[in-house]
Amino acid sequence: TEFNLLGDPTLDIWSEPPTQLCLDVQDTIRSGSQLLHVRVTESGNPVLGALVCAWKNREVYDTSHTNSSGIVNLQIHPVTIGSLSITATGHNRLPDRKIMTVIAGTPEPLITFLHASINDQGQHHPNGILEPGETGQLILAVRNIGTASAANARLTLHPIVTNILIPDSTAELGTIPAGDTAATNSLIVTAMPDILPGSDPGILAHIQSDENEWEFTFALHIGFPGRVTAEIDTTACALTVTARGAIGFDNEDTREGRGFRLQETDTSSLNIASLCLGNSADYVVDRFYTASETELDHDWTLNESLYVMAPAWNSRQFLKGAFTDAGHPHPENILVVQRALGTDEPDNDRFVILVYDIINRGTQPLDGLYAGILADFDVTATDRFHDLAQTSTECRTAYMHNVSIGNRFCGVKLLYPDIASHLACIDHSLYIYPDSGLSDDMKFRWLKGELGLPGSDRVYNWSVGVSAGPFDLHENNSAQRVAFAFVAAQDSNSYLATCRRCQEWFNTNVGIVAPYMSRIRKPSGLTVQPNPFTRSLTIHYHPDSPTSVNIEVYDAAGRLHTRLTSSEPGLEHTLIWSPANLAAGVYFLEVTAKDTDLVQRVILAR
């Protein structure tokens, strides 16, 4: 019982006042394989059974117990110069530690693990993360931290679990000079479909050179095959993202998610939130409150599950998914591609960014659209009736705090576009609790900036809304980007300061894409076939007058990849784009001809 009260049942507990151990060991040794002689005493007398440990980072680790003479011999092999730590511990004894100096001996190599990564291009979901059922290229890098070259180094891999397969597990690394690195990309690894998503299976690496051999174990992270909910956790705040347009929690069948939290272990300060899109009372798409506070709209439906992506835009975490308006009574064939990201940079870790690319896949234009986020923050989950809400036009944000605690401010900020933003505080006694509930007409009035207050008029239960618009979406894949951030801070001033930093971070890292999105319209005289495409894209352009044509191809991060040119003036131009080594995704064709400048969005599918 006493052991369990202290936590660890194996914890060694003093049964009498402890006495001090004393290590007797030489001060300096040379690098190389050797037997280290150590003596342990107590008040000058030898100690039987003391545990002695020798340790040097990535080179030496050996332990043994002293004999009746207080002596132990440890087989060690330090390779580099530096410090070697020797410790002695024992029951009812205070430990002792000595630091030995390792000086240069005979030069020799020492190969250590540097990093491992996955290239899964060509798979169903290429994201740099091996997922169940995927096969990828394993790039493994090692470093020689020793003092001599490792000649003719050869690598052999042994998976520790049976559901990781490496058909050809050997690779030649060649000669690795001291201080240099070597890498191989010739290894192919397969994660079996039954492997546990989110696990980190180990792989044993054995490297042999003409001089010596080494072993180390590294882990491969197995991703998830796609989820309805996933988390962006910056360590300072965390937000659950869903694949159905809701934010914080998914309420399709059961309530899944953890909301929006200021700390990983905190309770959620968000009850429910949703992306909202509409251009009339008859067409409002969302997953927010409807006729009753216990009922939610289910207009957004899942199109593509959430996937963990290789971080982009200088983020630390990156999620991608998609949903459509198919659940609306009168769907318009809208697809929303969603990206969620966060960073752990100091001072930039108190916000999570949501980027939505709204795409009209229909054959009719949609004009006068507004897009926004409705959010019901219960800043303190058990005290929802003591909240205050306010807005800031300068920071384009609506946010809330609880008067009982005062050190938790949460809100939503509009990041893009720059067109008119509408900020509102929504009184639950007027728009949520009455029998009429929050109708689509009310939601559309909020989207346009006709419903809600700039600030709460009393302590009560509130929601906030942040929207932008109007904008037009022409038919056939015209698109508009909107972006928001969920922001958290401890007081009003730091909240607004965080909003400003968030805008600066977005403008620097994400905003480069925005000009291409906002310029996409149905280009006159320009057709591309097929779209989406897998290998080659045929581009036809018919200008109004004879002219040459220049086409530049950009990716979604604004990077230029290809230039296509038809230099002879004419009334008909046909160009073929056949990208060989580009990843699947969205690309933009910028067509320049005489006084014409057009942008066409295309999708490369692998």
Automatic annotation (TrEMBL):
<dbReference type="InterPro" id="IPR026444">
    <property type="entry name" value="Secre_tail"/>
</dbReference>
<dbReference type="Pfam" id="PF18962">
    <property type="entry name" value="Por_Secre_tail"/>
</dbReference>
<dbReference type="InterPro" id="IPR013783">
    <property type="entry name" value="Ig-like_fold"/>
</dbReference>
<feature type="domain" description="Secretion system C-terminal sorting">
    <location>
        <begin position="530"/>
        <end position="603"/>
    </location>
</feature>
<protein>
    <recommendedName>
        <fullName>Secretion system C-terminal sorting domain-containing protein</fullName>
    </recommendedName>
</protein>
